[in-house]
User: What shape does this take?
Amino acid sequence: MKFSVLGPEGTFTDAAAKLYLQNHQKLNAVIDYQSSFNRVYEALKEEEIGLLPIENQLDGYVMPTLQRLMSSPVNIIDEITIPVNFGLVANVSDIKSIKRIFVQFKTEGQCQKLLNKISSAEIINTSSNIISLQKFQNGTAGDAAIIPQMEMAKLHYPVMENNVADQANNYTRFIIFKVKSASNKQLETKELGTFRFKSSLFVTPSVNDQPGTLYNILGFFAKAQLNLVTLMSLPTKDTLGVYSFYIELSGTTSQKEVLFKTITQLENQYHVKLLGYYSA
Assistant: This one.
């Protein structure tokens, strides 16, 4: 089975995928590296699985992943969280001589203290941390890159700084998914092996511009005693000013029937897109 992930090899996504396969050896899956978020999704057939980053502790949610979840058939089946940290490499005599620095677009938000120290350097965003390293290695004098800390031991450059994230305690969460729609009926029979569950969904009102819309939506979950882990609004892109609410819930498996009953009640008033029901 193909396991589609954002490449190339050596990224944190790669590390998360390998750890997941190590923990789920019965999957017997082969990692298939893709060059973009869209290609991770598009490379999958219905029964294959993919992995994308969804949240970083320092820089928040990953918008390309959320936008894919909102716009495409997706069934989140699991998640995995790994620690992340970064190192700085540069082919200059000292850090103040850096002229341009390659940084993955989510890494930039996690290394602001370092970037503020070299504020005169041009920041060039990349799609992955390993591509940052590759562009640096193919670059010229004055170049630098922020790369995965786990790659630092393999390299030797005039400037080498370890653990440059804004704080050492930094984690990224990834979702494991299939490219088919999740549905209430389909997931009601799903058995979880752990005591706790998580569930993700989008709720889209037909009209946003009126008092109490969000209050009413949240009331369904409060009445059912379901714990909200995440609440975000994203533009639907269909009409200016119309937003969808991304919600993550957690609870015990004894609340399973309550969860699906609540989702059914929500569907009577709003457009609901269920994204998955999986072990927490």
Remarks:
- Residues 29 and 136 are 32 Å apart (CA to CA).
- The mean pLDDT is 91.
- The domain at 86-164 is CATH 3.40.190.10 (D-Maltodextrin-Binding Protein; domain 2).
